[in-house]
Design brief:
By secondary structure, the protein is an alpha+beta fold. It is built from six helices and 15 strands. The strands form three sheets. It has a ten-stranded antiparallel beta sheet, sandwiched between helices. Strands 1-2-15 form a three-stranded mixed beta sheet. A two-stranded antiparallel sheet has the order 5-6. Helix 1 crosses helix 4. Its EC number is 2.7.7.12.
Length: 340
C-alpha cells in the first residue's frame, strides 16, 4: 500500500481507483465552480401529526426495542430512543422459495426493516441533539444488533441514516433505519473478501495498514484518537466523504465495547458538526459497514462508518459507467474540516 504523497494542485485533474471495489474516481476541481454545483439544503418542517414524537406512540407499529426511563411501559411515553418495525418495509417477514429462471435468479425479499427514532422531541437535525442523546442512539444500535445476531435468522444487518430530502428522508423527525437481510450486501461482501485475501497474502489486516498509512501521511486525517481515526478516503466518491474506523480490527459492531461505542458516537457527532459548520452540510447519509454474522476475526475485516454529505447529485456518468466524478480532493476536504 503505497501512493504518491504529493498534494494535488487546485486545478489538477486526476483519476484514482478504489483499492477494494476498483471503481475509478475522476477528481475534477473546476466542476466545483459550476453555477448551482452545490445543492442547497431543503427545509423540512415537522408536522403537528408527527408519528415519531413522544405521546404519538399509537400512530406507529409496536416497538421492538426502546431505551426507556425506569418503570415505563412499552409503546408509551418515557423513552429516549425507540426502535419500531417500518410501516412501509422494503423487506417482508415470510420466507420464500428460490426461483431460477433462464439468466435470472430471484427470491422473496425477506428480512427485518426497522426505524430507529432518535429523539422523543420534534428535532430535524441530529446535530442539535445532546452528546448524551447521541450516545444513546449508538448504544441502541449495538443493543438491537446483538438481539438480531443472537436470533441467528439473518446473514447481515445494515444500519443507515438519511437526513434531509437530498439524502432520501421522507420523514423530517430525526431517525435512522436498520435492515436485516438473508443475504450479505455486495458492498460488504466485497470488502470482507478483499480483507480475507489481503490477510492471507500479506499476513496483516488491510484496515490496520490503511489506518497506519493515513496516519503517516496525515493529509487526509480529520480527527484522531488513541482508538479511532476519522479521515477522507483516498478515492472518495463524493465531496467531503468521511470514514470513521477503529484502530484495532474488530469485524462486528455489536461486539464493540462501551468505550468504543462512546468514542465512535462522539467522533461521529463531531464530524457531522464540522461538516455543517464548514460547508453547511445538513443533508447526508451515514452507513455502518459491519461484518456478516458468520464472519470471524480471521478475515481482518473491520467495522466502520461511512459518511456521505449530499452536496450534489449523481448523474448519467455515475449511473451508467460505475465511475464517479468528485470536484473536491480528499486532501482539501480534510484540510477544510480540520480548520473548523
Amino acid at each position: 500500500m503505497t501512493e504518491d504523497v504529493s498534494t494535488p494542485s487546485a486545478e489538477h485533474h486526476e483519476v484514482r481507483y478504489d483499492p477494494i471495489h476498483g471503481w475509478p474516481v475522476i477528481f475534477a476541481p473546476p466542476r466545483a465552480k459550476r453555477p448551482n454545483s452545490i445543492l442547497s439544503p431543503t427545509a423540512q418542517s415537522i408536522p403537528d401529526s408527527n408519528p415519531f414524537a413522544e405521546h404519538n406512540e399509537y400512530l406507529t407499529t409496536r416497538e421492538s426495542y426502546a431505551d426507556r426511563q425506569p418503570d415505563t411501559k412499552p409503546n408509551t411515553p418515557g423513552w429516549h430512543v425507540r426502535i419500531i418495525p417500518n410501516k412501509y418495509p422494503v423487506l417482508s417477514a415470510p420466507a420464500g422459495e428460490l426461483i431460477d429462471e433462464e439468466l435470472r435468479t430471484r427470491n422473496e425479499a425477506t428480512g427485518c426493516h426497522e426505524v430507529i427514532v432518535e429523539s422523543p422531541h420534534p428535532v430535524a437535525n441530529v446535530c442539535d441533539l445532546s452528546d448524551d442523546q447521541f450516545l444513546r442512539i449508538f448504544l441502541s444500535y449495538r443493543a438491537r444488533l446483538k438481539v438480531i445476531a443472537n436470533e441467528q435468522r439473518y446473514a447481515h444487518v445494515t444500519i443507515f441514516k438519511n437526513q434531509g430530502r437530498a439524502a432520501g428522508a421522507s420523514q423530517p423527525h430525526v431517525h435512522s433505519q436498520l435492515m436485516a437481510t438473508s443475504f450479505v450486501p455486495p458492498m460488504v461482501s466485497t470488502e470482507v473478501e478483499y480483507s480475507r485475501r489481503y490477510q492471507l497474502h500479506m499476513g496483516c489486516s488491510y484496515f490496520q495498514e490503511l489506518i497506519k498509512q493515513e496516519i503517516q501521511l496525515g493529509t487526509r486525517i480529520v480527527l484522531q484518537t488513541d482508538a479511532f481515526s476519522v479521515f477522507c478516503p483516498y478515492a472518495s466518491r463524493f465531496a467531503f466523504e468521511v470514514h470513521l474506523l477503529p484502530l484495532q480490527p474488530q469485524p462486528h459492531f455489536h461486539l464493540a465495547t462501551d468505550h468504543e461505542v462512546r468514542e465512535a458516537a462522539h467522533l461521529m457527532k463531531q464530524t457531522l458538526v464540522r461538516l455543517q459548520k464548514s460547508i453547511g452540510a445538513t443533508e447526508f447519509n451515514y452507513i455502518l459497514h459491519t461484518a456478516p454474522f458468520a464472519d470471524d476475526s480471521s478475515s481482518g475485516f473491520c467495522w466502520h462508518w461511512e459518511i456521505y454529505p449530499r452536496l450534489s447529485g449523481i448523474a448519467g456518468w455515475e449511473l451508467g459507467q460505475g465511475s464517479y466524478v468528485n470536484p473536491i480532493y480528499p486532501e482539501f476536504a480534510a484540510e477544510t474540516l480540520v480548520s473548523v
